[in-house]
C-alpha cells in the first residue's frame, strides 16, 4: 500500500517523520561500508571551489568555531551574516602594505562640507549670544519657510536650516546691516543660493581697482604712441569719423539697481561670493537674450547681442530685473518720509521710504480679492537700464570746452535731444501692472480654503515664474525659486544681426577704365613715336639757330 506522505515507499526519505522509525534503519550495518561512505562525504566537503578556492568542510568548521567562541544570541537568524564574515576574513591580511580605499558616499561628502556650519566660533559665549539675539541682521529663515510651506512653496527643512546657518556665517564675516534670503536660481550644473544684504554706512568698499588698472594701462600705451607717432604720420590711414554712443554710467552703490549687494554660493557651507555691481548695458543686453545658468560664475555668456561680462554679471542683471518686478509689500506697510522735498519727486521720483508705525493689516480675504492691496517696494528699471534717467548728452565743463573746439572744426553736426524716460513711481499698486496677453500679471489665492481663519495670502507672479510673496498680519516676505527667466507667450527669437553696410556709391572717379584693343595700342604707339620725332626735330632746329647766332 502507498503511504500518506510526500515520499514514496521506495524513496530514501520515506518514513523519516513517522514515530519509531530511525533514519539509519535502511542503511547497511557493515562498518566498512559506513566508513567508506563517511570518507566519500568528507572528500566531497573538502572539494575546493573553482571560484573562490575555499571548501565547504573548512568553511563549516570555521563557522562553528566562530559561533562557539562568540556565542551570539539567535545564531540561527544571523548564520548567513556569519558565513559572509568568515569568507571575508580569508581575504584580509593583518600585515599588508595595501589598504582598503573606502568609497566616499555623496551624503558623507555633503556632511563634511556642512560640518563647519554647525561649529561655534572661538570664544563665543552665552553673553554674546544674548546680544546677537537682541540685535542681529540675521533673518528668521525657518519662520519664512514655514509660511511659504503653507502654500506648498519652498525647500526642504534640512536645506532651509543649512541656508539659515550659512547666512549666520556670512553675517559674522561681513559688516552687514540688513540681510535677507533672496531665493534660489537653478542651473544646469549647480544652483545659486542668493543673499540680499546692505552694508553699514561707510563700510562698503568701492570697486575702483579695475578703473585704476585701465587708466594706468592707458597712460602706458599713450607714452609708447607718442614716441612712434612721428614715424607713422606719413603712413597713417584715414581716420574714421564715427563716434560711438556715449556709455551710460552705472548707478552708485546704495542707489537704484545697485541699492543692495548680493552674495551667492552653490551650496550651504561653500564660501559666499560677492557679485559685482550691475551696469545699464548689462541690463539692456539681458533683456534681449535668454540663457540658462551653469552654476559657474566665471563661465562665459555666448549670445547675440554679445553680453558685456560673464555669468556673474548676467546673474546680477537678472537679479536686478526680478527684484524690480516682483518685490512687493502690503499697501500701507511703507510710507514716504514727510521731510522729503518736492524737487526730488520732479527729478527722478522718490527712492526711499520708511515703515509705517500705524500700519493696520488687512484681512486675508481683502488681500486676495484685490491686487490694489499690494504695492511695489523696489524702483522699476527704465529702458535705459537705470532706475533714475540720466541724459547721456549732458557734459561736464571740461567736456563742453573740448566739444566747442570740435564744433569749430565741424559746425554742421548738432546733437539730437533725447526724451526723458519716466517709469512708475515707488509704492505703485499691482493693479496697474500690465498683463501678458490674456494672462494677468499676478495670481492671488489663500493658502487654504478649509480653514480660512488661519489662511495665509499668497501671490504668484506670472511674468516671472518662481516669484512668490506671502502676507499674514504684519508679516510678509518675497522669495524666488526658478531658472531666472521671464515668461514669454511666444518662443524666444534672438535679435537679428544689423543690416549689411551699403557699398560706396559708384562714380566715374572710381570706375575702372576699359582695356584698349590691339589696334588702339598700335595707334597710340605710332602717335607717341611721331610726337617724339617732332620733338627731336624741333630741338635740332633750335640748336642750329643758336650756333648761327654765336658765329655772328
Radius of gyration, taken over Cα atoms and rounded to an integer in Å: 44 Å
Number of helices: 14
Shape: flat
Give the class from helix and strand content and strand pairing: alpha+beta
**Residues in β-strands, percent:** 5-15%
Total number of strands: 12
Q: What is the succession of H and E elements?
A: HHHHHHHEEHEEHHEEHEHEHEEEEH
State the separation between the terminal residues, measured CA to CA. 179 Å
Q: Determine the fraction of residues in helical runs and give it as a percent range.
A: 25-40%
Q: Return residue spans where pLDDT drops below 50 for at least 5 consecutive residues.
A: 207-225, 341-346
The strand line-up of the biggest sheet is: 4-3-2-1-12-11-10-9
Main sheet summary: 8 strands, mixed
Average pLDDT rating: 82
Characterise the protein shown here.
An eight-stranded mixed β-sheet has the order 4-3-2-1-12-11-10-9, sandwiched between helices. A two-stranded antiparallel ribbon has the order 5-8. The protein is built from 14 helices and twelve strands. It has helices spanning 31-45, 56-70, 79-89, 106-113, 126-134, 141-149, 157-173, 209-232, 280-286, 311-326, 342-347, 364-369, 397-409, 518-551, and strands at residues 176-185, 192-199, 261-265, 273-274, 328-330, 334-335, 354-355, 374-376, 442-446, 457-461, 467-472, 475-482. Helix 2 (56-70) crosses helix 3. It starts with 30 loop residues before the first helix and ends with a helix. 34% of the residues lie in helices and 11% in strands. By secondary structure, it is an alpha+beta fold. The protein has a domain at 141-202 and 246-337 and 351-389 and 423-482.
